[in-house]
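Running this now, will post back.
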Amino acid sequence: MELNSLYYFAEAARDLNITRTAKRLNMSQQTLSNHIARIEEHYGAKLFYRRPRLQLTPAGKEVLNFAQRLRHDEANLKAILVDTIQSDAGEISLSASSPRFNYYLPDVLKKFSERYPNVTIDLIDRTSDDSEKLVQKNQVDFAVTVDTDAARLGLNVKSVHPDPVYFCVSDRLLHKYYGEGTKALKEKSVDGADLADFSELPFLIITTRGRLGRRIEECFQEAGYAPKIYLKATYTTIMSPLCNAALAGCFTSHMNLSRWKNQIDADVNIFPLLCHSRPLSLDLCVIYNRQRYLNHHCRCFLDLLDEQFSTIEEEKLTRVGH
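Update: finished.
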């Protein structure tokens, strides 16, 4: 039995849809079915129930566990051999959301490629929830996530850095809803904006199931009201044009805001967001599986990430619009 057949079976078990898996792997359904049939013949057991829908048999679940362990062991073996022969070639797989990639990756890649020009980086765009699962299953080398409970999930954490959350709102919008009270409201919010003071405003609401959206929802619950929604969006990338147009109050993390600050008009206030009377901050984590062997390529990349994230704490972004 070839290892490739186990790989294709594991991919089919992930989708539980032969058509979808074959299309994703750029192969015919018949070829994929033949690989599965080889394993069934080798072990003398059926791997899937075909009706009423495709699902794993008890034997299929055991073979899938074996295939996943084998893939993990092979990945570790490749990483160990890279160190053994001191190779400067290889591949690193990293999972994170695209906004975070956009923030830190260019600088990290520049430094990393100077040291390891022959190492390929495989980037996987996922939320923190999905990235944690990929790390747990040993399907990526490591991931950048927020607010990861590493101990509960059985993961290692390379580094943790705070990523403060800010509330951004233009003077024009504040004057529209609060008139002469705007000055006092701004003075009160410089050290932290309490959403209870901004209940009249329309807001940009993040609809993704990511953790920033959930934490902001928690802030509204503490403030005791449901926000007046101007716009719903998956990511906060539309924040700066909405603020500049004085259409809504917006939220974003320090990491994102540091990239967009030059695009934001001078009359846009940037306040730390309060939650439970404290400035809200996400914990930015670099995680990997405890069973994952990290070769010198990965360790170098992790060190560069740690160095890059440490700059988040150094830059102060709070400002009063004018």
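The chain has three domains: 3-71, 75-159+284-314, 163-281. More later if anyone needs it.
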